[in-house]
Amino acid sequence: MEKAKFIWMDGKFLPWDEAKVHILTHTLHYGNGVFEGTRAYQTEKGLAIFRLRDHTKRLLNSAKIVKIDVPYSLEELEKVQIELLRKNGFKNNVYIRPIIFLGYGKMGLYHIGAPVQVAVASWEWGTYLGEEGLEKGIRVKISSFSRNSVKSTFGKAKVVANYLNSQMAKYEAIEAGYEEALLLDEEGFVAEGSGECFFIVRDGVLITPPNDNSLESITQATVIELAKDRGIPVERRRITRDEVYIADEAFFTGTAAEITPIREVDGRVIGNGKRGEMTTQLQADYFDVVYGRNPKYHHYLTFI
Ligand SMILES: Cc1ncc(COP(=O)(O)O)c(C=O)c1O
C-alpha cells in the first residue's frame, strides 16, 4: 500500500504515520466497528469520488445497525473525505477507507459508553484482483464456509466482525490455488463473494441474487442500472451452485473488485473460459460511468 500524506482522525488531519490507536481499543478486541470502501477515479476533469453519498449513507446505516452513535453528520463526513483527497494531492486512482470504531477507555462486551472514534484514510490503489483478472477473468472456489448467518449477524452492515468469515473463505480459496471465494448461504444458495456481489448470465438474461444474505452492493446496483439502459433483462433470484457451473458468463462486482469476470468455478469452465460478451459490455459501461464519460451518471461523481 502506498502511503499518503494525511489521514483524518477525530477531527484532525494527521501525518500518515501518526494515525494510531491504543492496544486496548475496544474494536480490536470485540469486533464492533463499521467501515466503507469507496473509490475515486482520475477523470478528464480531475479526481472524482464515485457515489460518495451512497457510501457515506451506508456507513451511517452500518453504525446504526450495531448501535454506535456517530458524532458526525452525513454532510460532515462527506466534507472530510473531499478535504482529505484535496490535501493528499493524489495523481492516480484512489481508495477511501472511512472507519468508525470503539476506542480506548472501556473493556468488556457491553459496548455502550465506549468512546466512538472516526477516521478516514485514503491511498492510491490499483485493481483489487489484478489487471489480468479484469481482462481474462479469475478462477473461483465455492467456499466450504457458509456466509455469516442472518440469524446471528448483520449482512447489511459493513461491520468489521463480518470479515472474519470473508477472510477465512479468501484464505481457503487462495491456499487451494484459486483467486477468490464464492460463499453460499446456509441453504446452499449463492450469497456473495468474500468482498463482492455475484452475477451470472444465462441465455441473455442477467441474474443476481437478492440482498438477503449479502451487503447491499453499490456496484451491483450500478450494474443493474447499466443493464437496464441496454435493455438487458435482469432477474433477481436465488442461484444454486450447479446453476453457476452451467452459466454462460459470471462476474463479481464490488468497489474494490469493480467488474471482475469469472472464467472458472471449482474446475468447471464458465462459458468459453474468457471474459463473456455481456460482461465485457457492462465492464466498459461501468468504467465509462466512473471515469465521467457518461453524462447520464455525472450525478454519481463528486469532483475534488
Ligand atoms: C462482503 C461484501 N459484499 C459485497 C461488496 C460489494 O459492495 P460495493 O459494491 O458497495 O463495494 C463488498 C464490498 O464492499 C463486500 O465487502
Blueprint (SSEs and pairs):
Elements lengths: L5 E4 L2 E4 L10 H5 L2 E3 L2 E6 L2 E5 L1 H14 L8 H15 L5 E9 L13 E9 L6 H6 L1 E9 L15 H14 L4 E5 L5 E4 L3 E6 L2 E4 L9 H12 L4 E3 L4 H5 L3 E6 L3 E8 L2 E2 L7 H14 L10 E3 L1
Question: What does this entry look like structurally?
Answer:
By secondary structure, the protein is an alpha+beta fold. It folds into two domains: 6-124, 2-Layer Sandwich (D-amino Acid Aminotransferase, Chain A, domain 1); 131-290, D-amino Acid Aminotransferase, Chain A, domain 2, CATH 3.20.10.10. The protein is built from eight helices and 17 strands. It has helices at residues 26-30, 52-65, 74-88, 131-136, 162-175, 218-229, 241-245, 277-290; strands at residues 6-9, 12-15, 33-35, 38-43, 46-50, 94-102, 116-124, 138-146, 180-184, 190-193, 197-202, 205-208, 234-236, 249-254, 258-265, 268-269, 301-303. Strands 8, 9, 10, 11, 12, 13, 14, 15 and 16 form a nine-stranded mixed sheet that branches. β1 (6-9) and β2 form a beta hairpin. The structure holds pyridoxal-5'-phosphate. The site of pyridoxal-5'-phosphate has 15 residues, from α6 and β14.
